[in-house]
Recover the amino acids of this structure.
């Protein structure tokens, strides 16, 4: 049992913001005592990001700034120090980060990370430790050629998927590393360590190179799920001398180190434990309370994702989905869509609406939209793969604002059902998180399309909450007082979730419409 008053901090460095959730242990249970969020675009304007991404003329390229993430981390600790929290009782920290993004450090980092001056801001001290000033992120789709080369070199896409959980995907770290090594050989040669966003930020906290966990490591096309070691054929196929540049691997529940002197001195914090960080989807799995196969979660964040726990890796024969490690030590199945919140925003903005107006449009239109369909590929799509973006409409007039609003949401929810079937999970409850989960009308469409009840927690950011729960779990395990995942999840005191019930007649309409949507999608892909 965690000592009364002990605090656990969960951080989430997502595409658009850095967030924190603090849990306090009381009487063998735990409750949320603080939630904070710093949106990058508004809080750190000088980086010039839009939705957390640096502007680029090539629509296939998506990059962000590792220095911005670090500055946000510094600022978030400053904000936390201003809260009424007994931070001297901070026992452990864990983190979540957008998956796949990579950060390239030079050989000054091994020592430099441990020698940060607490009297000075973090960001300028990190700049000289980077061998690449930018970080490619999960929205990048520029590595099609590298994907095919890696697949061919290891003996085919199926073999790569059997080992790593996924065929090669443009945003995965391996193809991204290959492109960098090819195009910027000198900078690659100067790279001593390649981190994921998760292990990079954990490294900042512990003052040394932190390990990668299986959850985030499986988003690289480099990790063998059977052994949880780097898979040599993939490593060799990706870039020269890559093995020496990859971080160590460690279980998600391990302690990576202790909060370094920089944080202790600068923010008067104790030498808290820092658990290994993971990806935002594995962390959301825990934040939503999902640890048994058969449960299903949906995240409506910048990306839309649908995921669920898996006991043993079962890869998607169709090549659309992924198997990642889960924080429990087991696995998770997941399908990812790049046209999530930003596609909804594009429709909202095109018709000059607010979110309220967007919701009213959903209220004002019938389920099934009178047969009107849309394929909302505003940016290159991950599922199904669409390299050249474009919006397609069928029986849908572009001038009809309300019908277009319904069409984008129905298309997205239909795609979630259609492309998650490979996981073989049929559910009557869906656990939902992400910014758009604030929108009840969108959730009604989700419930109706799946024919399942949708549950929404009161903590908006399941990834940060999941990270905080992981910090608690890792701390107890480290103290040889291990808690089951059931106890971790059910020990959280929180108001009962909002429930959105599916409407039977609406579900029937969507079931009847599935085939038409599938044909429309197939035709567009041809
Ligand atoms: P991420 O974690 O990927 O950075 P979030 O989960 O915080 O992103 O989601 C941010 C998105 O949430 C915004 O881009 C916005 O489109 C969406 N969002 C916020 N409020 C609403 C709303 N009321 N209705 C629909 N979408 C919303
Ligand atoms: C997962 C993926 C996205 C990012 C978003 O494979 O690409 O969900 O993790 O942060």
């Amino acid at each position: 049992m965690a000592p009364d008053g002990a605090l656990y901090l969960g951080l989430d460095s997502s595409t658009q913001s850095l967030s924190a959730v603090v849990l306090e242990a009381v009487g063998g249970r735990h409750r949320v005592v603080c939630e904070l969020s710093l949106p990058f675009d508004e809080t750190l304007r000088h980086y010039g990001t839009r939705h957390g991404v640096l502007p680029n003329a090539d629509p296939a390229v998506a990059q962000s700034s590792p220095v911005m993430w670090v500055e946000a981390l510094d600022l978030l600790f400053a904000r936390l120090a201003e809260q009424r929290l007994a931070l001297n009782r901070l026992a452990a920290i864990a983190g979540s980060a957008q998956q796949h993004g990579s950060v390239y450090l030079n050989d000054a980092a091994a020592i430099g990370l441990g020698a940060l001056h607490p009297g000075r801001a973090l960001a300028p001290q990190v700049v000289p430790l980077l061998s690449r000033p930018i970080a490619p992120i999960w929205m990048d789709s520029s590595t099609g050629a590298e994907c095919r080369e890696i697949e061919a070199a290891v003996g085919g896409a199926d073999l790569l998927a059997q080992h790593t959980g996924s065929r090669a995907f443009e945003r995965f770290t391996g193809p991204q590393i290959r492109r960098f090594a090819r195009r910027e050989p000198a900078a690659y040669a100067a790279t001593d360590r390649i981190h994921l966003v998760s292990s990079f930020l954990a490294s900042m906290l512990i003052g040394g190179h932190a390990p990668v966990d299986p959850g985030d490591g499986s988003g690289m096309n480099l990790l063998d799920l059977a052994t949880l070691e780097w898979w040599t054929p993939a490593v060799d196929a990706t870039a020269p001398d890559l093995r020496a540049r990859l971080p160590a691997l460690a279980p998600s529940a391990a302690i990576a180190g202790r909060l370094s002197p920089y944080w202790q001195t600068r923010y008067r914090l104790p030498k808290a434990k820092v658990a290994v960080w993971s990806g935002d989807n594995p962390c959301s799995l825990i934040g939503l309370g999902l640890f048994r196969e058969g449960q299903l979660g949906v995240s409506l964040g910048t990306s839309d994702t649908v995921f669920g726990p898996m006991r043993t890796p079962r890869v998607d024969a169709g090549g659309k989905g992924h198997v990642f490690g889960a924080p429990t030590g087991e696995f998770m199945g997941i399908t990812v869509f790049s046209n999530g919140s930003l596609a909804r925003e594009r429709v909202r903005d095109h018709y000059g609406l607010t979110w309220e107006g967007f919701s009213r449009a959903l209220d004002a239109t019938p389920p099934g939209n009178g047969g009107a369909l849309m394929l909302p590929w505003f940016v290159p799509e991950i599922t199904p793969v669409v390299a050249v973006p474009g919006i397609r409409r069928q029986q849908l007039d572009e001038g009809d604002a309300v019908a277009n609003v319904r069409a984008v949401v129905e298309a997205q929810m239909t795609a979630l059902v259609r492309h998650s079937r490979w996981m073989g999970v049929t559910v009557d409850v869906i656990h939902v998180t992400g910014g758009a989960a604030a929108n009840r009308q969108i959730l009604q469409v989700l419930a109706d399309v799946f024919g399942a009840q949708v549950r929404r927690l009161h903590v908006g950011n399941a990834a940060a909450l999941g990270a905080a729960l992981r910090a608690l779990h890792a701390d107890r395990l480290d103290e040889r007082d291990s808690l089951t995942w059931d106890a971790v999840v059910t020990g959280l005191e929180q108001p009962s979730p909002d429930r959105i019930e599916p409407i039977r007649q609406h579900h029937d309409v969507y079931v009847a419409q599935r085939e038409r949507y599938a044909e429309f999608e197939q035709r567009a892909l041809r």
Summary: The pocket of D-xylulose (ligand 2) is lined by residues 14-15, 98-100, 138, 171, 219, 279-281, 303, 305, 336 (CB under 6 Å). The two ends are 57 Å apart (CA to CA). Residues 81 and 267 are 7 Å apart (CA to CA). The first strand starts at residue 7 and ends at 13.
